[in-house]
């Protein structure tokens, strides 16, 4: 990540994921042009005119001022209130075809590493195994069809890759266009 940007425990490289990009746009919260702007989801009932700089995300001021969340906190059960607040209010979300959601492991939120295809996923066999199990549990009973689907990730469907912040295990879920 670029020097000088805030560090996000649960989204360690928001530049690589495309959630933050270089921009001359001014922040909707602090009204400063910091050279960087957030590009992904923000959930609020309020009208927001523009996007946020990474610093207003990191310190929670954007979420507080606009009473919103950067990720839908549904599904983040079993983690501490502090971790939940950090992910929802002080961590950049990410782009996804479906509603993005955060994975949990070892009673903590995981770190989002990015959207990947099969080639990248193979480097993380624990994530691939997790994905196979998850897909079998959701109804993929034909092993050949499942493997065909997985080997074609990156072509109309991709995987969202995460790493456990406690034990280092990689996990993933499928996002389909």
TrEMBL record:
Top-rank lineage group of the source organism: Bacteria
Family membership noted in the UniProt record: Belongs to the UPF0167 family.
Record-given protein name: CbrC family protein
């Amino acid at each position: 990540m670029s020097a000088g940007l805030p560090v996000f425990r649960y989204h360690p490289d928001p530049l690589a994921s495309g959630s933050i990009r270089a921009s001359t746009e001014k922040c909707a919260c602090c009204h400063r042009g910091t050279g960087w702007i957030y590009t992904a989801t923000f959930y609020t009932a309020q009208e927001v005119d523009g996007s946020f700089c990474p610093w207003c995300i990191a310190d929670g001021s954007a979420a507080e001022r606009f009473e919103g969340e950067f990720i839908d906190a549904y599904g983040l059960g079993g983690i501490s209130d502090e971790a939940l607040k950090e992910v929802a209010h002080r961590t950049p979300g990410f782009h996804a075809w479906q509603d993005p959601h955060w994975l949990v492991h070892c009673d903590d939120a995981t770190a989002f590493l990015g959207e990947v295809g099969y080639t990248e996923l193979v480097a993380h066999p624990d994530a691939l195994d997790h994905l196979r199990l998850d897909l079998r549990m959701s109804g993929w009973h034909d092993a050949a069809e499942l493997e065909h689907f997985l080997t074609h990730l990156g072509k109309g469907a991709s995987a969202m890759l995460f790493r456990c912040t406690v034990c280092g295990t990689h996990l993933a879920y499928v996002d389909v266009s």
